[in-house]
Amino acid sequence: MRRASRTAERLRLHPVATVAEWIEGARPRTLPTMVSPVLVGCGATIGAHAFGPWRALLALIVALALGVGVNYANDYSDG
């Protein structure tokens, strides 16, 4: 019983974020700014006849993950 009360107290002090809050923290409206450099790079590789769809997909995933991570870190540092 004592453990349950400590968990309840911890949740009162630090409420758990909802899924909507996580999505809001990712700032979806900034996603196009993360995609545009990847599209430019894809255009350059197509021009050089070196385009690889898997590399483009991985670059897109990394760009989005880094951008969302930076947004979360910014929100965290703002308090």
Provide structural commentary.
The chain has four helices and no strands. Helix 3 runs antiparallel to helix 4. The mean pLDDT is 87. By secondary structure, the chain is mainly alpha-helical.
What is the structure about, briefly put?
The chain has 79 residues and is an all-alpha fold. It has helices spanning 2-13, 19-26, 31-47, 53-78.
The low-confidence parts are none
Radius of gyration: 20 Å
Largest sheet: none
How far is it from the N-terminal to the C-terminal residue, by CA? 33 Å
- Please provide the ordered H/E string of secondary-structure elements: HHHH
Q: Sum up the overall morphology in one term.
A: elongated
Question: What labels describe this entry?
Answer:
79 residues, mainly alpha, 4 helices
Furnish the topology, listing elements before pairings.
Elements (H helix, E strand, L loop, with lengths): L1 H12 L5 H8 L4 H17 L5 H26 L1
